[in-house]
From TrEMBL:
InterPro entries: HATC_C_dom, RNaseH-like_sf, ZnF_BED_domain_contain. Pfam families: Dimer_Tnp_hAT. It is found in: Nucleus. Residues 365-413 form the HAT C-terminal dimerisation domain. The keyword Membrane does not apply. Its main location: nucleus. The keyword tRNA-binding does not apply. Keywords: Metal-binding, Nucleus, Zinc, Zinc-finger. PANTHER family: ZINC FINGER BED DOMAIN-CONTAINING PROTEIN 39, ZINC FINGER BED DOMAIN-CONTAINING PROTEIN 4. This is HAT C-terminal dimerisation domain-containing protein. One of its GO terms (molecular function) is protein dimerization activity. It comes from Austropuccinia psidii MF-1. GO terms for cellular component: nucleus.
Length: 413
C-alpha cells in the first residue's frame, strides 16, 4: 500500500498554533481514504526545522518515517498567488491601517483614503477596498447590517455581503461575486447619508464584472482540486494549461487597461510553476492513469508542452519505463519452473530465443490501455481501475500509488 501525506499549520480562535498531518491511500476496495495521524500544538518558533520535526514525529507513531520519496507543492496556494498577482497588476493597492468599523470618526472618513474614480484611469484596488470595508463594517455593526439586510430582502434571497479574508483561498472572488449579485441593493444602501463613501459608479461595476470574470477560472480550479472524495492530482497539469488559456480569454473579452499586465502577471506565475511541475513525475503519471485523459490531453496540447521542453511522444516511453519498474518491484508469484532441455538446450535456445517477458508484458499492457478510447468524463476513476485490475495489473498498481496523492493541503486545514 502506498501512502501520501499533507500537512499545514493553522491558528485556533484562542490563538494557539497547531500542525495537522493527514494520510491518504487507496484501500483494497479501491476507496480513497483520509486519516488524521497528527494534530500537534506548536511550541516556540515556527521554523522549518521545528515543523519538520513535528511532521516526522507524526510519521514515527506509525513507523512511516522512512517512506518519504517525493514532495509536491500545494496547487491551491499557487492559484491564490496567481489571483493576487493578477489583481495587483490591475492596480496598486493602498493599505488601510484600520477598517471604518474600528474608526471612531465614522465611515465617512474613508473618503480621504480613496481617490475619486476617473473614467480613463480606474483604480481596481479602490473598488475592492470599498466593497471590502463596507462588508467588514456591516459584519461589525449589527445596526447597519440589519438595515442592509432589510434593503437586500426587498430584491434578493441572500442576505448580506461576504467579508474578505486574505489567507482564505477564493476569498476575493467570493466577496466580489456576492457584491455583484447584490448590485441594486448595494447601490440603494449607498444612498444613505453615512454610506456614500462606498458608492460605485456604473463603470466601476463594469470593471468589477471583469474582475469576477478574471478570477472565476481560478475559483473553479481551486474548488476542483480541494475535493477529498475523488483523486485530484490527475487534474493538476490539465488545469494549469487550461487556466493560462482562460485567463488570457478573460482579459481579451473586456477592453480594459492595462490588459497586458493583468494577463501576463498570472500567466507568468502559472508558467513558472508549470515548468517545475513537469519535473514532478507523479503528476504526469497520475494524469495518464486517469482513464478519461490517458495521452489524449497531452497529444492535444503537445504544442504547449513543447514550449516547456516536454513532448507527448517522450512521455509514452518514460511512462513505459516507469511501468517496468513497478512490475519488477511487485510481489507477483514467481513463474513456474520450465523443464530442462539438457542436451538439446543450445538448439532449443536458438529455436526459442530468449525474450524479455517483463518488458513485453508491460508494453502490451500499455498499448492495450492506450488503444481503448478515453472514458467519458463522468467515469469513476477508482471504480475503473477496480473493474480492470485483472486486465491491467501493473498499471493498476501505479494508479493506486499515484492517484491517492492529494494536490492541496486542504485536508490539513
Amino acid at each position: 500500500m502506498f501512502i501520501s501525506f499533507t500537512t499545514d499549520v493553522w491558528t485556533s480562535h484562542n490563538l494557539n498554533a497547531y500542525m495537522a498531518v493527514t494520510a491518504h491511500f487507496i484501500d483494497q476496495q479501491y476507496q480513497l481514504k483520509l486519516v488524521l495521524i497528527g494534530l500537534n500544538e506548536i511550541q516556540g518558533d515556527h521554523t522549518g526545522t521545528s515543523l519538520a520535526r513535528i511532521f516526522l514525529e507524526s510519521l514515527k507513531r506509525y513507523t512511516l518515517e522512512d517512506q518519504m520519496v517525493n514532495a509536491i507543492g500545494c496547487m491551491a496556494h499557487v492559484l491564490h498567488l496567481v489571483s493576487r498577482d493578477g489583481l495587483k497588476a490591475l492596480g496598486n493597492r493602498s493599505p488601510v491601517e484600520s477598517s471604518p468599523a474600528n474608526n471612531p470618526r465614522g465611515p465617512m472618513d474613508l473618503k480621504s483614503l480613496i481617490d475619486p474614480p476617473e473614467v480613463l484611469n480606474l483604480n481596481y484596488d479602490s473598488i475592492i477596498s470599498r466593497v471590502e470595508h463596507l462588508a467588514s463594517y456591516l459584519h461589525q455593526s449589527p445596526q447597519w447590517r440589519e438595515r442592509f439586510i432589510t434593503t437586500v430582502k426587498l430584491v434578493y434571497n441572500v442576505t448580506t455581503l461576504l467579508s474578505h479574508v486574505s489567507t482564505r483561498w477564493n476569498s476575493t472572488y467570493d466577496m466580489l461575486e456576492r457584491a455583484l449579485s447584490l448590485k441594486d441593493a448595494y447601490n440603494q444602501y449607498c444612498t444613505l447619508e453615512n454610506m456614500q463613501a462606498y458608492r460605485l459608479s456604473p463603470l466601476e461595476w463594469e470593471k468589477m464584472k471583469f474582475m469576477v470574470q478574471f478570477l472565476q477560472p481560478l475559483y473553479q480550479a481551486t474548488t476542483i482540486i480541494c475535493g477529498s472524495k475523488y483523486p485530484t492530482i490527475n487534474q493538476t497539469l490539465p488545469l494549469y494549461i487550461l487556466l493560462m488559456k482562460r485567463i488570457n480569454q478573460a482579459c481579451l473579452q473586456y477592453n480594459v487597461a492595462p490588459i497586458e499586465p493583468a494577463a501576463s502577471a498570472p500567466t507568468n506565475k502559472l508558467t513558472k510553476y508549470l515548468i517545475l511541475l513537469l519535473k514532478k513525475i507523479p503528476l504526469i503519471w497520475a494524469s495518464i492513469l486517469d482513464p478519461r485523459l490517458k495521452m489524449k490531453f497531452f497529444i492535444t496540447h503537445n504544442s504547449k508542452l513543447e514550449d516547456f521542453g516536454t513532448l507527448a511522444k517522450e512521455l509514452e516511453s518514460i511512462f513505459e519505463r516507469e511501468a517496468r519498474y513497478h512490475l519488477s518491484s511487485s510481489n507477483e508469484p514467481s513463474p513456474l519452473p520450465q523443464p530442462s532441455h539438457e542436451q538439446g538446450s543450445v538448439l532449443i535456445d536458438e529455436i526459442y530465443p530468449m525474450a524479455h517477458p517483463e518488458a513485453n508484458t508491460v508494453k502490451n499492457e500499455i498499448q492495450q490501455y492506450f488503444a481503448e478510447p478515453p472514458e467519458v468524463k463522468t467515469t469513476d476513476v477508482l471504480l475503473f481501475w477496480k473493474s480492470w485490475a485483472t486486465m491491467f495489473p501493473t498499471l493498476k498498481k501505479m494508479a493506486c500509488k499515484y492517484l491517492a496523492i492529494p494536490e492541496t493541503s486542504a485536508p490539513s486545514e
